[in-house]
Amino acid sequence: MEKFPQFELENQNGEIVSNNSLTGRTVIYFYPKDNTPGCTTQACDMRDSMATLNDLGVTVYGVSGDSKKKHQNFIEKHGLNFDLLVDEDFKLSEALGVYGPKKAFGKEFNGITRTTFVVDENSNILKRFDKVKAAAHADELQDFLKEG
Fold first, then answer.
1. pLDDT tens-digit profile of 84-137?
2. Which residues are CB-contacts of 19 (< 8 A; sequence separation ≥ 6)?
3. Which residues are catalytic?
4. Chain centre distance of CA 24
5. Closest C-alpha to 11, from 84, 66, 67
6. Which of 32, 39, 76, 107 is 20 to 30 Å from 70 at the Cα level?
7. Going from the N-terminus, what domains does the chain have, and what CATH number goes with each?
């Protein structure tokens, strides 16, 4: 079984989250940028699914290259009920192969590709969702978690 890389990232409050923080099943989802339309849709869907996810014993973390301050603003603006982790140097994103060349509006640039990992307390990757669609992802995630 593939392992989630060792990591140590700050959340929006400056608290360290690492592999040691993983208890039970954890959803770690990577998204391009705070307060953009797709990322807001995805984050709000996660927020609205949190009661079900918590009932399933699942913890959720969102990860992007944004700063703690941007994460705090994003959380406050949309009433998010889970932590956002700061990967400003994209080390974790690169280690997982979710950071690299992208195209949007005819421009090429480096960024995070929307990807979600379900990880257990031993850092085993139970499932990887690639090319995630922002709008329907929370339902897709719940379906997988209910099966397992």
1. 999 999 999 999 999 998 887 888 889 999 999 999 999 999 999 998 998 888
2. 4, 6, 7, 123
3. 39
4. 16
5. 84
6. 107
7. 8-147 (3.40.30.10)
Q: Would you state the structure tokens that stand for residue 142, as one six-digit string?
A: 């719940």
Instruction: Give the model confidence (pLDDT) of 40-94 as tens digits.
Output: 999 999 999 999 999 999 999 999 999 999 999 999 999 999 999 999 999 999 9
What is the β-pairing status of strands 58-64 and 83-86? parallel
Return the SS3 of 65.
Answer: coil
Q: How many CB atoms sit inside 10 A of residue 39's CB? A: 20
Q: How far apart are CA 89 and CA 67, in angstroms?
A: 10
Q: Are strands 58-64 and 25-30 parallel, antiparallel or unpaired?
A: parallel
